[in-house]
Amino acid sequence: MPAPTGTADREGASMSYTQIDEIAGASYSDSAAQSKRRQECAGVPIEIGKLYLNGDRLVSLRAALFDGYVRVRDEATGVESTITPGQLRSRPVEMDTDYYPASVDLSDEDKNHALKKYKHLERLVRVQKFQRTEAMLTVAALGAARSVRTIRKWLADFDAGGLRALAPLKRGRPTGSLGVDSRVESIVLQVIRSELQTKPGITVKDLMPRIEQLCDELNNSLSVHDHVRYPGEATVGRRLRVERENYKNHHGQTRRHIKESHRATPGGLKASRPLERVEIDHTLMDVHVVDDATLESIGRPWITMAIDVFSRCVLGFVLLMTRPSHLSLALCMQHIRYPKQAWLRAVGSPVEWDMWGVPEIIHSDNGKEFHSIGFEYGCREMGSSLRFRPPATPRFGGTIERHFGTLGREMRLLTGATYNDLIKKATTKPVHSAAFTKSHSEWDITRIIAKHHDTPHSRLNDMTPRRKWLQGLQLEGMIAPALPIVPEDLFIVDFLPWIPRKVSREGVQVDRRYYWDDALSTFVNKKEQKVIVRPDLRDVRKLWIQLPDSKRYIQVPMVKPIEFSGVTLADWIVFRSLNRRQLDNRDFHLDLQTESDRRAVDAVAQVRAKRRASKTELATRGLIAQNERFREQARRVRATAAPSSKAVPGQIDLSELEPTPGYVYRPKSPYT
């Protein structure tokens, strides 16, 4: 043990801990900090006449009654009541606003370090300050293997801050300190915030020239001794990372995304039984698929999936190459409602998937397909009600969104994926590496769903979704959900688009496809009677038609065009694009039409310009011609007139002339 250093003499050092305890027992007094700490831990004493809180009411204690009850009076109303002392609470005004547990930011190592120091100071802190002699300090220094000066410092720290003050201080710069001049800090933040508004991807290298320019402008207005230094790139980089996470520095979709990612979302949808609440949504898969026949890439498919909130079991899904529509919702609801054994055999999957039924409440976003008449009518007819989450708030669909994330991570490991979780980067040429067909992708999705059903879920207290589903059925007294009565091929009809059509002599026309059945013959060209048409986009060769005043649907085949040999809507789109009526020498005639339009524009412009330039001249020529006609008429009258005795030579009878207009043009003489 190293020898302690200090000013205590050898004689004082011979004092024992027993003598210190005797002095402390004779006169004990807490330090100010220790006394305050003891008072805080002890609480507020319950005494007659003091004020307390009873719930949210301010009351005063009036008297102590028998059996542990007390009588209190409401200070606002004056009403007295009898309560137990345990119902009283201390007022906030009697609580230290700066109070917090002493170990709030101390590690176990720091606490242990503080306790070791306190063991050597325990007898000294029980003695009043004026009774602490050099001998006592020397004894404590010998026990702690420290100097007397160090013991004095420990005592001063303890008197000022209690046990917490004995913990070692944290190394490094204090929390919250900037490390740079406040003026430079304001310049850096100003430049970063202004640039992020228009350039979200800006880098530190792009920011430094502007920051240095503003620092130079500031230095020009200061004396040499007050000049500021340029901030380092690391300093600017740290500020840039912080400001980039602030949604206020962005616009549009980036602003909404950052704000949403930092929003607290406690709680969530709750369900007490299976099928009580079901979430349904779409997403674009992160993997390319190939055509079954040509094995060429046909793009990324869309998946529509439904999940049970109570058990987190997937109730059904559908994979299509087209964007979400009435068809994807109809097929997904069909997958939810019916048992899946036949479908699993068709896919070739050996897994067990015994979840089906009618959802009580269907939660979805505000996509237009969810607001369609067909989907709403089909759900109501099935016995389900719809609930829509607020617009642009995906957090309200967290159950299905989280499962989409899990499904996406699993699918990214397949060939043709657009992103690879193993290497954390985008896959090069995913279109060329695609090798899985749509049916193979369905098989893989089924495998991932079966794995999910047998994996313990954190929100289910580590119970698997399958066990949670079976547990919920048992609590409801059910062996399995009710089996459907409606045939599977007719169930989808209620969810298909609802289109009224007239029956012409050629049949019912939908998108230039004609359908006919003999049952339609009585409705040909009857404008007041229309049939209800529901096209099945999986097979455009047939059409579901509901006849007027009938509750049954009939299946009508397509009769035109007879050249069409496809099945799906995608086949029809390809057929239309290849067989669209086109003009021979189309480019040549388009060029002629363009030249004709150009000539017409030039001709109109030329005529208008000419007429504007000669407007006055035309009017003048018209008046001159009118005057000449008048003179010619006068000469004819003079030549045919008979001689009269009373007639004056050189005169004519003006009564035989035609009426003269009110204005006759007379050219001005240059001599007037």
From TrEMBL:
<dbReference type="GO" id="GO:0003676">
    <property type="term" value="F:nucleic acid binding"/>
</dbReference>
<dbReference type="InterPro" id="IPR015378">
    <property type="entry name" value="Transposase-like_Mu_C"/>
</dbReference>
<feature type="domain" description="Integrase catalytic">
    <location>
        <begin position="270"/>
        <end position="473"/>
    </location>
</feature>
<dbReference type="InterPro" id="IPR036397">
    <property type="entry name" value="RNaseH_sf"/>
</dbReference>
<dbReference type="InterPro" id="IPR001584">
    <property type="entry name" value="Integrase_cat-core"/>
</dbReference>
<feature type="region of interest" description="Disordered">
    <location>
        <begin position="638"/>
        <end position="672"/>
    </location>
</feature>
<dbReference type="InterPro" id="IPR012337">
    <property type="entry name" value="RNaseH-like_sf"/>
</dbReference>
<feature type="compositionally biased region" description="Basic residues">
    <location>
        <begin position="249"/>
        <end position="260"/>
    </location>
</feature>
<dbReference type="GO" id="GO:0015074">
    <property type="term" value="P:DNA integration"/>
</dbReference>
<feature type="region of interest" description="Disordered">
    <location>
        <begin position="248"/>
        <end position="269"/>
    </location>
</feature>
<protein>
    <recommendedName>
        <fullName>Integrase catalytic domain-containing protein</fullName>
    </recommendedName>
</protein>
<dbReference type="Pfam" id="PF09299">
    <property type="entry name" value="Mu-transpos_C"/>
</dbReference>
